[in-house]
Amino acid sequence: MSFFKRGSLLLINFLILILLTGCWDANEPERMIYVHGLGVDYKDDRYYVYLQIINPSSLAKSEATGGEANIHVVVGRGDGKTINDAFFDVYRSTSRRIYWGHLAYIIFSENALKKDGAIVGTLGVISRYHETRYNTWIYGTKEPLFDLLKTLPQLEMSIALSRLTDPKATYRQNSLINPITLRELLIKLNEPPHQVQIPYVKLTKKDKWQTDKEPTQVVEIYGAFFVANNNVKDFIINEINGIRWTNKDATRQEITVNHGPTHVSLLVDQVKVKYKPIIKNGQFIRFQMNVEIISRIREIVKKEPLKKINNKVRKRIENEIKETFVRGLDNDFDIFRLSEKLYRRNVRIWKKIEQNGKIPLNEDSLEVYVKVKIIHGERDRNIPITEKLSD
């Protein structure tokens, strides 16, 4: 091969190598800061954002070993006249580029939920940024956001296994308030009745959980915020117990009747809910809600006929649903989203009576029928465990 040909081949190879090195703008993972949680507050005419920062390398070690690997949580804060201004205020004080691809949850303070445009503005910024995802969990709170975002899971578990990051884990064991994602929130705000239910989280009392060294606080689901365009109301769980009987994906719930020394507790494994609009002469009359639950007795201290237990459970559930429905009406909330049900079933009737996406409702607008099925063997159903052992 001549010198000229060798030179030509070397030149071509050199040019190819130049073209292959195309990652000039790549960011190495260890040189970025990762946002895991976001808090949004509003006070004194300014927005405040709180960024929970985690170390992904220690996070991976913790998940692999099942314990803590020097996990530390850092929370940064920024403020501004708009949400975007608040984010850029954080950027001015960070030492490295902030990466949003691992954002797991967003918590709104009560003030932010009540501020007109705060939710829309935050979700607009987050959803338009290419690094974020629509499966981010959404919460509301009255707690100081610094305290909430600095809280670590129990037993030194990975931060990826916290109550806020993985709410479905506890929901499968106690199906009270259904967690909601960014995608679901956007859908519900854009569909009748343009209202959404957001889990209300708080920190437990300091005497509720303790380590071998000191009391500790963890995050708990305390109730729900109901958010509409110009209306926000918080409910604790005891005020809206009926919601749990309308969660179609509920997998585990408890109900107790005969409160006192003769109480009976049942475990509800499955809930089925059907809504039927009653329409006569082209006019909407009311909704019929049919609820079927499958349950089993878990605790009983005094023998009682199965039929009697069944009737008490049925009446208790019916009352909880009706009380929750009325509680929502008192605060101008369509708590079971009946407006959406009519919109899906009969849009012509819905258009005739809707006002701003909601249909007029009163206490007589909902009839509730509950069917309870208690499963497992007849002998094991309605007698205390001590009587079974003595036979």
TrEMBL record:
Residues 237-376 form the Spore germination GerAC-like C-terminal domain. Its main location: membrane. It comes from Calidifontibacillus erzurumensis. It is found in: Membrane. One of its GO terms (biological process) is spore germination. Signal peptide: none annotated. It holds the Pfam family Spore_GerAC_N. Belongs to the GerABKC lipoprotein family. This is Ger(X)C family spore germination protein. It is a lipid-anchor. The lineage of its organism: Bacteria, Bacillati, Bacillota, Bacilli, Bacillales. Keywords: Germination, Lipoprotein, Membrane, Palmitate, Signal. One of its GO terms (cellular component) is membrane. Residues 25-203 form the Spore germination protein N-terminal domain. It comes from the Bacteria.
